[in-house]
Amino acid sequence: MSANKEAELITAVLLYALRCLAEGDQLALRTMNFGAKELDALKEMNLADLYRADSLRAHCLKINLNREVFWPMIEHLRHQRESDELQRELIVADAPLEMMQTLFGQSSREYTRWRRLLTVAPAVGRPPELDEASTHKLWYVWRDLVDDHDDMTLLPTDYLLLQKETGIGLRAIWTLAQRWIEYGDPEAHAGPKR
Fold first, then answer.
1. How far apart are CA 110 and CA 104, in angstroms?
2. % of the chain beyond a pLDDT of 90
3. What is the pLDDT of residues 139-152, one digit of tens each?
4. Of 3, 69, 95, 192, which residue has the fewest beta carbons closer than 10 angstroms?
5. Are 171 and 96 in contact (CB under 8 A)?
6. Phi-psi bin for 123: left (phi > 0), alpha (psi -120 to 50), beta?
7. Which contacts of 84-90 are long-range, i.e. CB under 8 A and separated by 24 or more positions?
8. Cβ neighbours of residue 146 closer than 8 Å, sequence gap 6 or more
9. Considering the entire predicted model, what is its pTM?
């Protein structure tokens, strides 16, 4: 079997067209410029024909790039890739399940799969309560980040920044941040702002 890129493209398009035909997707076939005669010819094709078409040097396709679709697709893929990288980074940093569910809608099955894949040791129990000095340190950094937002909601990258700035684990950070968000501005309980 020949392995030239044009033949591979033609075979892929013919397979796609056959699938559209089998599924009754007439719109996709019309968009690709398949008429009634071409559809009749597709109906007669078999696997051996596709194998033989792969060895032909003829090119029967005219392909155009639709930039109006291409660039949003590329942007979506880039955004998804960055989100996946951020999720991996958070899981490696021992982000709790509740955090991943809240920030990304991640299921417990997906969370467990990622932890296994990234060889993150299983977390057992609740995070230890922070001492007063660590709590205050976290609160001041958290307060500075919250002041930069319209509400008390932080971005996933903010949690990584909190961990980096304070040296406190994400489980403890998430627990305290959620407590502070739930009970409102803890400034009255934390003493004067530095």
1. 11
2. 49
3. 999 988 888 777 77
4. 192
5. yes
6. beta
7. 86/156, 86/157, 87/114, 87/156, 88/114, 88/118, 89/160, 90/156, 90/159, 90/160, 90/170
8. 152, 154
9. 0.67
